[in-house]
Amino acid sequence: MTDRPITLDTLGAWVIKCNPHTTDLAPMVTAGRANEWWCVAENYRSRLMAPEQPVLFWVSSHRLRGLWGAGRLTGVAVPGPRWKVPTDITLFDEPILAARLSAIAELHALEVFRSPQQSNPSWIDRDAWSTVRALMP
Predict the structure, then answer these.
(1) Which residues contact 39 (CB under 8 A, 6 or more apart)?
(2) How high is the pLDDT of residue 4?
(3) pTM for the whole structure
């Protein structure tokens, strides 16, 4: 038994956060897709990441803060000076705004709200993932 909240049994989806002040959103919006590679912290979370796991794309520090897309991991986190994980994320036509998500009881305590400065990857549990999927286009 582990005291870590994230296990393969509790994981609903990973959340990759993007700060548009450090990563240009314009090329991604034009392409309709998020970048294929994202930096992640070297920790137990990154070691849990595996191909085909769902991933959400969260944009922070933006007037339209919230979920901008969804997809899947396409591989495992790759060690290096900066660990990275490969993704396949399609952007939504319209983001699901943080204000809308935080107003839903099942989602108001998401890690992106509780700990917005935490490094990638963030996550949501299975129950929250079910709720978010119902909101996705």
Answers:
(1) 82, 83, 84, 119, 120
(2) 63
(3) 0.94
